[in-house]
Structure formats: C-alpha cells, structure tokens
Design brief:
Structural class: alpha+beta
Distance between the termini: 22 Å
Number of strands: 4
Number of domains: 1
Strand order of the largest sheet: 2-3-1-4
Strand content: 25-35%
Largest sheet: 4 strands, antiparallel
Number of helices: 3
CATH class: Alpha Beta
Helix content: 25-40%
CATH architecture: 2-Layer Sandwich
Length: 74
Amino acid sequence: MKLNESEKGNTYRIKVKETMDTGATDWFSGLTVTPLEDGGTLLTGPFPDQPALRGLLDQLWNLNFTVLSVDRIK
C-alpha cells in the first residue's frame, strides 16, 4: 500500500534565536541541528504528525529557546 503525503508526515525547518550547545542537541535526536551565522540555530527534520511537532515546540519552550519561525518544507 502506498502512503500519501499526509500519512508520511511532513518535514519542518524550525529556527530558534539562541545557539544550542552540544548538550542541548541530545534532546533533538533525529533532527539536523545547524548553527547559523547570526547566532541562531536551525532544526530540520521529519515529523509524523502535528502532535509530534507540537511536542518539539513544547520542548523548546521548556528549555527557554525563542522560536523565530516554523516552516514546512517539501
């Protein structure tokens, strides 16, 4: 059976204002963590559904990161 896009989930790019140290990146396994020249951090990766994305955003909130943008990429 072939899955449609909504069943596979989506890939998101999440930009946070702060720089993540190596200890914080352990919280985000499965995501690509890219430091940005402006001092921010870009998290990119797949999420199977909206609750999974919300869970990550809640985790960022709990760790006091400032979310600047959340973009779905194709």
